[in-house]
Amino acid sequence: MRTRILTVFVFIGILSINAQTKKWSIYECIDYAIENNISIKQQTLNADLAQEDINAAKGNFLPNLSGSASQSWNFGSSINANNVRVSRDFRGNSFGLNTGVTLFDGMRNINNYEQAKLGLETSQLDSDIIQDDITINILTRYIDILAQKENLVIAQEQVKITEQQIDQIEEFVNAGVRAKADLLDVKAQLASDTESVVNAESAVELALLGLTELLQISYKDFDIQDVELNISSVSLLYESADEIYAKAVATRAEIKKAQLGIERSELDVDLAKGAYYPTLSLGAGLNTFYQHAQGSDDVRPIIDPDDSNNILLIPNGFGQQLSDNLGYNVGFNLSIPIFNRMQTKSNVNRNIINQKRAENNLAQQEQDLYSTVVRAYNSARTSLNQYRASEASVEAQEEAFRNAQESFDLGVMTSFEFEQVRIRLINAQAAFINAKYNFVFRTKALEYYTGVPITIN
What we know:
Layout: H1 2-21, H2 26-36, H3 38-59, E1 64-74, E2 77-79, E3 85-87, E4 90-104, H4 108-175, H5 180-215, H6 241-251, H7 253-273, E5 279-293, E6 299-303, E7 311-315, H8 318-324, E8 327-335, H9 343-410, H10 415-449
Antiparallel strand pairs: 1-4, 2-3, 4-5, 5-8, 6-7
């Protein structure tokens, strides 16, 4: 029993460790955000409503069917043939079944159905637009975390370098080779470097917090996968913004939505014009009734087949009356619009204006997309140049730092002079990290505009 209990606790502990050490990939972040985003869920419900609009539009092609039933009572009296007032209280029932189908309505049912289908497509595109925005936001936060983590590593490495310098200078001071003031300067630098590590750790925490807020999950124990970027051969995927725009305009959801908007506006015009045409429908029905005189039996008189001078009373109950009184009807109904106070004409004109507005909206969306692509392309090209320049700067500063390290170790360079060289290296490394991740973000955003899935490697 104790063994079983111990096994359970060990298993729970392993699960707890795994939960705490889980690191999220960019794909998991994007998938989770899309799956749990409230706007996406709302848009899914909008798509469900659009599907119901399609179902309703389909139903307009089918005949309707309705049934009716009634119960009535009549009270009063009248004078019969013998000049005697008699009661005329009656109870009655009637039943009916009616159906009808539209044969022609100016193509309005057809256009309604086509418009409902476009409504579903539009709803799905709205969901795609939200997903695109979420993906770009996740990519921005994810890359920011990677950059802050790399800044932290550099800050920690600077602390190690300074600690090594302290050990080395202490030996020189003890040997009488260096002044004690040099040791104090380096110790002061260690305090500054330690503060830089604290600030870098805080920047990492804030970047992680920003991503968890976007994902709407707990910040506790959250972390992302470490990614080693492979950008040894940096270049842009396309040579001009026009190439990117040509692909983006054919794939972007906002452009497709604007195109569907024109199609829907054209259907709106056709729907409005449908009111100019007559409507033809076919109807059919059956009905029957039952009537009972209060205080009397349900009978009816007939001529005796054996004696024509004799009248017989035969049962005339509920079922018999329903059968005898059953009737049918069928007919066509034609409604021809003649004059409706210019309402149809005005409605047509309004929808023609809306059609022009939809066309302008498409042109505006295309213009906005082109401007966005051009700005993104120019930003990516600038970030590429910054990356190359900062890479060369880091290499030069690293070489200068190595030379300064040798000079400082030999005592031919003061601690102040050495610190200036080290600061230039740190600044060059920070600029390189910023340029590197900025270039990665810009290029990934450009690729996403062309339909390439987000990847970081």
